[in-house]
Amino acid sequence: MSELLHSDESVERPVIRLSPEEASQIQATFMRQVYGWMGGALALTGGIALLISSTPELVELVAGQRLVFFGLLLLELFVVGYISSRAAQMSASTMTGAFIAYAALNGITLSVIFLVFTADSIASTLFVAAGTFAVMSLYGYFTGTDLSRWGNVLMMALVGLIIASVVNMFWLNSLLYTITSCVGVLLFVALIAYDTQKLKALAFTGLGDADATHKASLLGALTLYLDFINLFLFLLRFFGRRR
To answer: Any stretches that span the bilayer, and where are they (predicted)?
Structure first.
C-alpha cells in the first residue's frame, strides 16, 4: 500500500510499502520477464547463426571478408554500449529494438563457430552451459548470502581477463589460453549468480511505471544474456571438437 511520509516539514515523498509476499511476487514477475526476453534473444541468436552457417553465400560474406566480420563486431560493441549508457534516455520501444538488433548481430558473428566446431559438440556444450546457468541463477535468486561483496573482485577479474585475452590474440601462448579459458568459465559462473541477485533489487525500479519496468527487464535480460553467451564460448574451448 502507498503512504505519504514526511522527510522534513516542507517535502512530502510517496513511499510504497510492500509486504514480504508482495515484494516476492513483484520480483518473481520481473524475473519471468527477464528470463523471457533473454530466452527470446538466445533463440534469435541461435536461429540466425544456424541460418547463416547453412548458407554458403552468407558464410563467405561474414567469415570470408575480415573487414565485414570485424565491422560487425565493432557494431555489436557500439549497440551494447549504447543500450547500457543511454537506457534512461531511450524509449521502451527503441530499447526493445536495440536489444533485438544486438541479439541478431550476435547471431551473425557467432555463426562462425559452426565452421570451427562440430554441430554435435556445439549442441552438447550448449546443454552444459544451459544447465550451469540454471543452477547458478537459481542459487543467486534464492541464496540468503549477500553476493554484493563479490562485485569489485568480479569486475577486476573481468578487466584482467579481457586484457589477457587481447594480449594472447597476438602472443598466441597455449598456457595463457588455457589459463584464460579456466578463469573465464569460473568468472562467468560467479557472475551469473551475482547478476541474478542484483536483478532482484532492479525489480523495484520504476514500480508502477510500465515503461520503466520494461526497460529494467531488458537491461536485466541483456546482462544475463551476455553472461550466458560468454560462459558458452569459454566452455566451447574445452568441450568443442574441431572439424
So the answer is: 34-55, 67-85, 97-116, 122-141, 153-171, 177-195, 216-239
Handedness of CA 181, 187, 193, 195 (dihedral sign): negative
- Give SS3 for 53: helix
DSSP state of 54: T
**Cell (9 digits) for 32:** 519471468
Residue 206: CA count within 13 A, CB half-sphere: 12
Q: What is the pLDDT of residues 212-230, one digit of tens each?
A: 999 999 999 999 999 999 9
Rounded to the nearest angstrom, the gap between the alpha carbon of residue 221 and the centroid of all alpha carbons in its chain is: 6
User: pTM of whole model > 0.85?
Assistant: yes
Cα gap 32→213, rounded to integer Å: 12
All three cell numbers of 67, joined, read 573487414
For the chain, domain boundaries:
18-239
